Amino acid sequence: MTNDLDTLATALYVKTDDLLKASPQLTPWRPKVGISPQLSDAELVTLSVMQALLGFPGEARWLRYARSHLRHLFPYLPQQSGYNKRLRRSAGLIRHLVRALATDTSAWTDDVWVVDSTPVECGRSRETVKRSDLAGWAEYGYCASHSRYFWGLRLHLVCTLSGLPVAFALAGAKANEQQTLLEIFAVEPGLLAERPGQTLIGDKNYFGAEFEAQLADAGVHHLKPARKGETERAGAGLFKPLRQVIESINQTLKGQLDLERHGGRTVTGVAVRVLQRILALTAAVWHNANVGEPVLRSLTAYDH
Asked: Is 177 domain-assigned?
């Protein structure tokens, strides 16, 4: 195999199709009586990943491009409304596929993880905040790296050093980072139970005696820079370059996969668009690993 977009799309389609055949319960619900879709679920997921990799936040423009350039891969393409509805119903399938691809790489067994949260802005005007269906989930928060307030959510992401997403959660902008991380591990206890001695690197926001005690009880070796008034920890000199890894991963999601231009207006719409970008990153890492690329997180071969 080679590392070009068509090859990735073909491999992803086959992987998704095999997953659906082995686990038909993952197929998005549709009425038993009716017209069978001309675009299969595996094709839909593949199409959505190509949209994220090629940098088309808007669905209308993406489908116009696909009709002109991707007919060799997708003989039938739905209208914008049909694509949007089916993509939202495929959120569960996309989430399962992220894990299926991740566990199919050697990076899945890495014994060092990095964790951080990054803003997912959902609106700027006061009128948007007042009328949005996201009210009650999205909220005002502060982004220290950009020194500004924003209205929206935060994506909490646990990754390997090679950029492979391991676990994630989408929460309100003010959600406690320590509590959110503990809840991520509580939802999937097997993540840590199967990895005694896992190392987790976070920033200064992941602190607290009770928080660290719970991680230690779960077998996690937690590393973070010392906060003001704390004694510097052993190995602190390694934190800065390793901390840059998660910042770089977040920048890949934002700069190359347009995380902040998701365009979602409802809870399901935002969730599936964030999942779409996480799947695109995971698919690129998975494919790069399979073809033997030295830099697993590189998207250069797939963004044009």
From this structure: yes
